[in-house]
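ugh ok fine here u go
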Amino acid sequence: MSASTKGSSGGPVSAAHRHLGADGDPDPYTPGVGCCAVTVEHYDLDLDYDVEDNGLEGRAILTCRALRGTDRVELDLTELAVTEARFGGGGLGGLLGARKVGVHHSGSRLVLVLPRVVAAGEAFTLTLSYEGWPESVDGPWGEIGWTELDDGVLVAGQPTGASTWFPCVDHPSHRATYRVTVHADADYEVVVHGELESVVERDGERHWVYASRVPLPAYLATVLIGPYGRTELGGSRVPQYLVCSKKRRKKAEKTFADQARMIDVFTDWFGPYPFPSYTVVVVDETLDEPFECFACSVFGKNELGTDWDEQRLVAHELAHQWFGNSLVLASWQDIWLNEGFASYAEWIWSEASGDRPARWHAEKAHKTLSKMRQDLVIGDPGRVRLFDDVVYVRGALTVHALREAVGDDAFRVLLRSWVAAHRDGWVSTAQFRAHLREVVPEQRWRELDGLLDAWLMRPELPALP
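structure:
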């Protein structure tokens, strides 16, 4: 949205999972979601969607692994009704010999009672059939999740909207690979997170298959359906795709004309683009703000243009592919790592494109914040203010303060090494501090650690270096 170590992703019982604790809510920022006993390693979703009446029939095969011995699995699923649930051991044999499980569904919590206890580390499958009329949920961050449009649908899952369209563990400390099949009317384009593997048309319906082989948290999963067309944007080392209606295409192509250059600039600063491709979707609706998904960003019709106000959004959402989508938060408390770095990327692009230097943007942002009430600790902003503008702006200022403190050359090394060390892994503020200690001399590290304390852990606004 605008305004871990790499090794931690390799095993089922990672540090990110352990931070959840043995019992209770996984994360005080998103109480009542997630699962401490089980993680899902792969989702295989088959979705039959009727655009006309917003009806959804789904089948989800979850490849799971127990984090501890248990006979109960808690998943997140909002509004939709489970019609059947089965349990099987790992592999194809488990699917063929699946046994029924008990289903208890209250609110957004789906509790499955297994026919036996699974041991810690054991792999097993859950197959769930479900149906209903999905809809968004309203909370402290506005409406999130499955949103029916005038002609189509979009899913904005951050932070807990994934449960509005499939059964999942809806917390960023749990990540999985995906295979998603969507059946929809042939007049509609379907975009899902990941790479398009196939699309087949028969009997007036198209069958789309997408796969994502890089594990991602559920909130980055998305489905976008509308009367769109797909074109490839040229000029980039990374395949880029534009999905929008015919009437928006000309303006959209102008809006994203510099995106290939942005990829080059960000690759220079952050390291290689982390995914096989990048897709931007423009919906025929007005959005409050664009939002990022896995290897994809979504813009409203009101966010098209070539002025700075629109171009900074293009840069911001693109930067999230590094900060937020490749480097994934272990806890929502550290949201500044996503939004602060993506917001600072706007200033990097401004500088690289020959517009205002980053220092100019920093001074302007600092002046704006200095006139506001200083009451937010962005290193722990709290649930209600998770996406407060101050988190974005002060987060960017924190990054700029580091740049000023270490100098441009060391700053570039810091960014590239941070991204490389944690690519496709979980990250936290504590890990960022540890990374600073690894790449700067000890006497400088203590100074920079104090700088982070001042910017992240105290409400008073520090002076710019």
